[in-house]
Amino acid sequence: MKIGTVAELEALDLEGKIPEEVCQEILSVVTYLDDTFGADREADYDDGGYVFIAESKEDLDYFAQNCVELDSPTLEYIELVPSNKEPYLNVFFLVNEYEVGISLFLPVSIAPEWYIDKTMFQGVGKEEVF
């Protein structure tokens, strides 16, 4: 699921589908994109970027085939998004000569093992999460 603006996020009913903490992180990303690049931009064609939520292995495969390869050299960082439910990862890619940022949010349970190894745990021990 691709989300480019706050309006697109609000149009989706994500409550109960993904953890609230992840929704808040996604809101923070798309708010930044709207404030910086404009809320009326088209995420597929204009500068800025978008969020992609992968809820299944099939979504992850779609992302890899249609957006960015999972092991792309444009991968900038991977950070943990803790939640009271399942933890998620925010995998950030900076593509198109730094004009487009893509934040891939996915549950840890479907993440490639090497993503977990590269995750920035921000003071939380890996063993506490997994």
How would you describe what is shown here?
- By secondary structure, the chain is an alpha+beta fold.
- The protein has one domain (2-122).
- The protein is 34% helix and 24% strand.
- The chain has helices spanning 6-11, 20-37, 57-66, 113-118, 126-129; strands spanning 2-3, 48-53, 75-81, 88-95, 100-107.
- It has a five-stranded mixed β-sheet with strand order 1-2-5-4-3, sandwiched between helices.
- It starts with a strand and ends with a helix.
- Residues 123-127 have low confidence and may be disordered.
Offer a quick outline of the entry:
This protein has helices spanning 6-11, 20-37, 57-66, 113-118, 126-129; strands at 2-3, 48-53, 75-81, 88-95, 100-107.
Name a few traits of the molecule.
alpha+beta, 5 strands, five-stranded mixed beta sheet, 130 residues, 5 helices
